[in-house]
Amino acid sequence: MACTAPRPDAAHPTRAVVADTTLPPVRAFTQPAPVLPSRANTDITRDFLDLSFALESGRPLPVLTRFETPITVKLQGRSTPILRNDLARLLMRLRNEAAIDIRQVTQGPANIIIQTVAKDDIRRALPHAACFVVPNVDSLSAYRRARGTVRTDWAQLQKREKLAIFLPYDTSPQDMRDCLHEELAQALGPLNDLYRLEDSVFNDDNFHAVLTSFDMLILRATYDPALQNGMSREQVGARLPTILAQINPDGEHGRTAPRSRTDREWMNAIQVSVGPDTTNARRLAAAEKALSIAQSRGWSDQRRGFSHFILARALQNRDPHLAIRHFRLADQYFQASVPDGPHRAAVAGQLAAYALAQGDAQEALRLADSQIGNATTYQNAIHLASLLMLKSEALAALGQTAAAELARLDSLGWARYGFGPEWIVRAKQREIALLYPKNRTN
């Protein structure tokens, strides 16, 4: 999962230093090729309104708020060349894909302050968040003083003028990037997350690590000249069809696929199961409840797959064989509902690890190879590095030593981006190497 920790207090949108190393250089992804959503604009209208007129807690927002452009962004605190590069790439995408007039500044005031702070400082400020965004402050100390007041209440805003994003500097490059993408998107636009969205970072399942073309379309519509600060849901809803017809003409002919709303009871069960500070028994009970709700609602989309995925994770240490059964069920639902999304890469790593542990190197290789492309497309270095490590071990077990070494070296550069410090990368290597029975014997 990415870096958002589910939390009961969703008043502020949240998203839950690389040391010197002997590992290969950190790998970097190329800019994604934008592909506009294929579904109907009528569905996108509904998604826009649900995203923009509520907080993650379900609390309604009375009016649309956004910045008046141009928008300036400043990075403060400890930073790395990787973070600075990721920010520059994201701002370029926002200009090119979302048509937002946004740029980085290094001096003077800025509309959006991105401040890097220690993880412990973030937890003290907002215990269940890995990173978050707040209106009308410019530092963590200012947030502490203003917390709980009208000043930091999103529902009281009439327009956005100054916001602060707080990212942890003591985490992996990918965690920082994932936080950066989600928090900057929420600083600019929608403040809600919807589990029904299979192609968006505005979804607390966190399968998407970087902003998608759907997200860019939502942000582009948010800053369309036809919309204004202070407009009601009804006023925005009346103008959206014309806006979307202009900026997403293919959506006028897209297939309408209405989705049922997601029960708060199911969301609460998911949050308990994947959240911090709970017992294993409570985590498992919550995962079982979430799956039961998904089954009773007749869901067959990625929410059903996610329910099986979460239960499988909760079962891994208690009943590995039953866990694998639920991982396979998750994969079946993901294959049917999001066959080309990032979801199956997360499951493939689990299934390939199980196959390797059972001594089936050929099956482990097949599973890893099947999803390396998706992990790359959706820019998840954690999944990509893990799949490449599994591929390397499977190839080695099959006696393909040269190919195994190439896969191993390729995995390490991505692992540095996904996992961070060398000791974590090495530990992941050892963990995967020891899956294969003969390695454990030796």
What would you note in describing this structure?
By secondary structure, the protein is mostly helical. It has helices at 41-52, 81-97, 119-125, 140-146, 173-188, 213-222, 233-247, 264-274, 280-296, 302-315, 320-337, 343-357, 361-377, 381-397, 401-418, 422-433, 437-441, and strands at residues 71-77, 102-104, 112-117, 132-135, 163-168. A 5-stranded mixed beta sheet has the order 2-1-3-5-4. Helix 11 packs antiparallel against helix 12 (343-357), helix 12 packs antiparallel against helix 13 and helix 14 (381-397) packs across helix 16 (422-433). The protein is globular, with a radius of gyration of 22 Å. Mean pLDDT is 92; it is low at 1-9 and 15-20.
Computed CA radius of gyration, to the nearest angstrom: 22 Å
**Can you summarize the main beta sheet?**
5 strands, mixed
Percent in strands: 5-15%
Taking pLDDT < 50 over at least 5 consecutive residues as the criterion, the unreliable ranges are 1-9, 15-20
